[in-house]
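Handout, tutorial session.
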Amino acid sequence: MLLGAARELTANPDFAGRLVFLFQPAEEHGQGARAMIANRVLERFGIDEIYGIHNWPRLAVGHFATRVGPLMASEDNAEIRIKGKGAHAASPQRSKDPIVTGSHIVLALQTIVSRRMDPLEQAVVSVTEFITDGQVNVLPEHVVLRGDTRSYLPSVQKLIEHEMRAQATGPGTALGSEVDVDYRHVFASTVNHEAETGHACTAAHRALGADAVTPNFPPVMGSEDFGLFLEHRPGNFSYLGNGTDGPHCNEPLHNAAYDFNDTGITPGVAY
């Protein structure tokens, strides 16, 4: 899409303004925007506004969707390391079982959203890995829990981090295990600016037709590296439909069967 737009504009040079095409690497791990900003790409090329787009399943080909405000969530990652005391499985009284401590922590973390957050706010706290160095007949010495959290507001991010540290250290103290929490901010929330979202919708109306534009698309809990750019410059991030009835274009993002629908390239270039 970006190459096609660059080709069309260079073939028709009566364009009023200055346009910079950013081919951003390393989006999936949240490092591309960070590296480009550190390299002062916004300053070196005099970028005043910034726009991005992503193909989207379950949305008709050529249909454009966006919203003012939060469109995608922040992503934070956590690693909780628990050190207990290992023992033979037949002598649990001689251990300080980190599996029990870890299990208490997993359950406690579920109360962050349900009992610590304002129910009108939105967030997800998920424990995704539970790793031990035990064996079938050996209670382990160490447990590592890893997890992923999503939210839209910096205040909610701060609350989740604070509560995660508290919820993890409490069971550790009670059950005699040492607990260490490493909490990392990976993706900023993708928060669209009002004026620039208006510009994006106007461009989509002209290129795709008014019936092909959804200006108040519901926010999603996925994360996008582009959000960091929007903390440094006003702009907009939008979705372009990948299709609703193809053999694989309607599969969820990151599903192994997902297939980018090439017929979406032309409307993407037009936008």
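The second record follows below. Compare its token runs with those of the first.
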Amino acid sequence: MSSLGDINNSPALVNELEMARKAGFTKYSKVAIRLEPDTYCSDHGGNTEQGWWDDAHWSKYGHLRAPYDTFAKWCAALKERDGIPFTYFQVGMPSDDYAQEYPGHMLFNGVSRIHFTHPHHQPLVSYDYTDPDFQKHTLATWQRLRKDGMVGIKFDYPETGWRPEGGFENKHATTAFAYREVFRLCREGLGPDAFIHERNLGETGRPLLDVTAGLVDLRRVWGDSNDYVPEMVSTCGLRWYKNRVVFNYYPDSKAVHNRTPEVRQSLLTMVFLTSGRLELATSFRLSSPEIVHDVTRIYPLYREPRSARPLDAFMGAANPRVYDLELTPEWHQVALFNPDKGKANTVSAALSGEHVAGAIGLDPATSYYAYDFWSDALVGTFPGTAKVEKQLGPTHCAMLSIRKVQPNPQVLSTSRHVLQGWVDLADVKWDGQGKRLSGVAKVIGGEPFKIVVAGNGRNAVKVAATGAQATPEKHTADGLSRVILEKPDNGDVSWRIEYE
């Protein structure tokens, strides 16, 4: 975002959230909005907000504007509208006037090179995060922002805080210790529930290390780009063993308004599986009902500390094609992804076999359903010794729910979420004595919630729900049916299907 643009100021971003509400996004999830005070030293004679970090300077450079001319007012306005307020800091790029006012807060306690010409992301004068006075100032900033209602921080250019040349007030400090202090102070001041984003891409020779583990929630793995290319998926996906466990990863903001439905759905699915964060580069004013539908299929995020494993990561392909998220031993969500940009391909995965050979690792002695979320279709019923496959266009994907065939009626999928029942259904159970399949659905007001059910040899005779309308519907596949739940407002709905 540009600090001089039409969107990167407090009233414009409140309006952006209003458009998100009007489009219907906030029925599905809260929306985080980030105000970026990103003035650079090349402007205004070298003076910026950085280091001052107060409402007066954020207003001076046009980011806080009336009627939301303080962060307290802006945060309150967002929270009133189901928003989550985020903002932005440059780690080691002080304003010239701040550095001259407080030279003791700088490395080597000096500013002699303050007017030397340099690229904005390679400052010659930078903060000393081990200096006690600067630490007090920084911690007080975070504590004030927490009181104002700030929830998330993006730290830009964090490599500017990696200072191997030293100059620390703390003579025992290492480069890594001083760098970690940036984020430790933020965590202490904003609190344990704050969202801390470290945009560390390893630029300008600084190492991309995990020294902020335990302090930082999110790390970015790609430069500025709203595009969608297979390498972005792979860069996050190959960190599957750390993603959602040590950090969340993501490949920068993404535009969703200028893509075909198939590519948009692929982008959303693969970012959801391999990242855990979707940052939109598309204004909510461009959100058609189709875009709203597709984006909201990945919310809410699941909470389990594990990520989808790229099964064919060690089989020689530049970009993995099969991602497996094991929900239970008998239920896997498997994404088949075609990373080729120019041609269609058949992508497949063996149901049983070793992970290292690209197999899902299911029981070869039983059978499984495979149901495709985006096409809302049964791929088939397969023996455990078989493989599942789909013909996919360039950068397209299929999200399959693969479930062990039960001896009784069972749920196969839902229309609400790409995990097809994992986050949107609860307490699903079969009562053999009462011949009843039941559960609880998290229904969105005004949207039909469709549950796909396999009868497994039994015929349904009645569907019912508490607090919602329940309607049976035929399915194109033999042996399958749907139950459609509808209610005017959001809420949990207890449903049941009775069988002969």
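Points raised in discussion: Residues 1-5 have pLDDT under 50 and may be disordered.
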